[in-house]
Amino acid sequence: MQVLETRVDTGSEAYRENFAAMRELVEELRRELRTARDERSEKARRRNAELGKRTVQQRLDLLLDPGTPWLELAPLAARGMYDGGVHGAGSRAGIGVVCGREVVVLANDPMIKGGTIYPLGVKKTLRVQTIALENRLPMITLVDSGGAFLPLQSEIFPDVDDGGRVFYNQAWLSKRNIPQLTAVMGLCTAGGAYIPAMSDHVVHVRGTGAIFLGGPPLVRAATGEVVTAEELGGADVHCRESGVSDYFAEDDADAVRLLRDIVSTLPPGRRAEFACRPPAAPLYPAEELYGIVPRRLHVSYDVREVLARLVDGSEFLEFKALYGPTLVCGWAYLHGFLVGILGNNGVLLSESSLKATQFIQLCDRQGVPLIFLQNITGYIVGREYERGGITKDGHKMVNAVATATVPKFTVMTGASFGAGNYGMCGRAYSPRFLWSWPNARIGVMGPAQAADVLVSVKNDQLAREGQPPLGPEAVEAIRGPVLAFGEQEGSAYHSSANLWDDGILDPAQTRDVLGLAIAAARNAPLEGRDQGHGTFRM
Ligand code: COA
Fold this sequence. Notes:
- The protein is of the alpha/beta class.
- It has helices at residues 13-38, 42-50, 56-63, 119-135, 163-175, 194-197, 216-223, 229-233, 235-242, 252-265, 288-292, 303-307, 350-366, 383-387, 390-403, 420-423, 447-464, 472-489, 492-497, 510-521; strands at 2-3, 71-72, 91-98, 101-108, 139-145, 180-189, 201-205, 210-212, 247-249, 315-319, 327-334, 337-344, 370-376, 408-417, 433-436, 441-443.
- Strands 1, 10, 11, 12, 13, 14, 15 and 16 form an 8-stranded mixed sheet that branches. Strands 2, 3, 4, 5, 6, 7, 8 and 9 form an 8-stranded mixed sheet that branches.
- It binds coenzyme A.
């Protein structure tokens, strides 16, 4: 494969400015992640200690093999929402290694409103379950939750992707033979009681863990019976009498020891056979990405400079290098895995869409995972391009992306606007994982374009009514709010808060995160490759 040679001048003013701007974004990201992980009230800390419980971080530290990587999922979910303190939507989640086995872990945080489940907490749980299902990873849940966050119960309970779906998914995980282990470390109340009940293995902690359909306050209100949580659904009740729980644990540490023992008994699953070779570092330092990615979205740069800092040995076999140059496609190894990469180098045209379609088909046939580096303002617009059939060609790309059966991974590295989001494997196209860089922006179109469309629509209306077009003040009154909204709602933080991505990445960590994600995806054998794609409009 050809070695990508850099043309970046690391001494240039533009490089230095970009570098400083991205470093600031990365520092802000680190601060946000620290806050989400550590900011808990003194009251909650005291209560947790009084009950003899470990913190979520301590539970994870006990559970995971020392010195192994932890790929955190959605740590900034619900950021800035509710009262601003529901960090991570009330839970920690990630992919880690337990007894040498990759697993997905979800842990309620009892120090955030008693571990109660907010609407985005449900969304996070469903996302983690999807990751377990798609990658066939055993799922470990550390339950410690007051159940539904009652003031928002109508947003959590009734719909197809609300709370009930969590248990529906558990049934499907079980049917698909994906092991589910639950440690009951706190309350599992009402619907929450089904989390252990629907798991394959249930460990129950004496004293703090309790499972019941109605907690003591509800029982007292309904029947007048006065009973403690331990008497109603403690480890003694469920390990000795009801048979709901399987393993009796003295405390958190004992429960984690039991979980680890159970994981060590799980049979190895069948794996995807990805082509591999020994990994090699890229030739250029990852931090140089800070200086390469422009501060402003509309400034173009060569995506090959990014590839040179992501892939093994900076080696890249470019596919159709001279055709459809606004999309770079090609083969490379990343942490030793052969991958097919698509990276935007400008707006998507018919040729680049056709090239992408063919390349995706090839990777799908060959069982090669796909990586999308998404930085796209959209498909080209205008009379010439409509006549040339851009919609028809864009459709082929969108169609191929949707039905490709190999694992797909998307990194939002800049703009994500319009149908470009779809063609480049946005969230709705089921990439196994999707991350944003801190500079990423997402929307139906850029805020300035959206504002101009609205002004133009208004002026057309006025013209129909025989009135003069909007004056500068009226134009500003329309543009101002749209621009402000676009700035806020289009940001990577807004995306991550809403779980439109699996997290925001320091660009310099992209290579390692992708490597971990591909390794996780390898746990699911490749299926359905012989089924091809749908009908392509010619
Ligand atoms: N909905 C909304 N808020 C809840 C809640 C719920 N279901 N359960 C607890 N909270 C809040 C409390 O109001 C408190 O808020 P504050 O910190 O602003 O005062 C916070 O969570 C912690 O609760 P607290 O009772 O002080 O902590 P604890 O560690 O002693 O007990 C629970 C935690 C979860 C065991 C206990 O609060 C409880 O039993 N909650 C009700 C559980 C229930 O019946 N849920 C049914 C819903 S399906």
